[in-house]
């Protein structure tokens, strides 16, 4: 039991890393299935288009899915075009939105980059695409480029290039694997630099940041529970009123203005110690203070605490 409990605690503490690892493993497995079962290089003039479509198209689709699965995307977009003053945007808010978009892109890019890296290490997609490239033909061939290019098109189908062509040149498979490792090294380097940069410019200390993340997670969990309970009670009241032909009993539900107040992305201020818009809403007389309304007009985005 202790082993099971320790394993559960480990999974809970590192659920974000484990989640990314699981998704990456599933992406690698999917790429392997595509490469082994679906992908068949035509070995003709369509090699480059066919290879690039398998290398880049799934990555682009995964990027879009990453945006769609991120709740911040909809938090930024929902209702923005319908606001009466949607044209009155300050430069600070625009900068904050761009910063938030950059953070969302970084998270959404994890799976697409995993696909590309694994595909490069698997060599099939790159070998097919590169064999149909004019640049590759000029790189390998010095004399008769036309005949050489015809031979290059057959490489993905198992044809070996003559020794005089491959002399002192990396093979397409070697190039693909080399690019794959370079991509992985670049991703890890950028990720490490980004994490160091975000922690270096964190407005709070390390333990305070840990507490903030714990609070944000618990608040989201409780919000989901309370929202379901509240919606269930409201639905029961309205349904009973309809079927039983009775007058509805008084039932308080947040107003449209209240929902709008807690829908901003929270910005940290050193003079205040709020951890979210709901915390600020509850601590400022349900958001009725003048200070709350003024600050609500333009919220900078804090990237150190997960919003979704």
From TrEMBL:
InterPro entries: CALHM. Its main location: membrane. The keyword Zinc does not apply. One of its GO terms (molecular function) is monoatomic cation channel activity. GO terms for biological process: ATP export. The chain crosses the membrane at residues 20-39, 48-69, 178-201. Keywords: Ion channel, Ion transport, Membrane, Transmembrane, Transmembrane helix, Transport. It is a multi-pass membrane protein. It is found in: Membrane. It holds the Pfam family Ca_hom_mod. The keyword Cytoplasm does not apply. One of its GO terms (cellular component) is plasma membrane. Belongs to the CALHM family. This is CAHM6 protein.
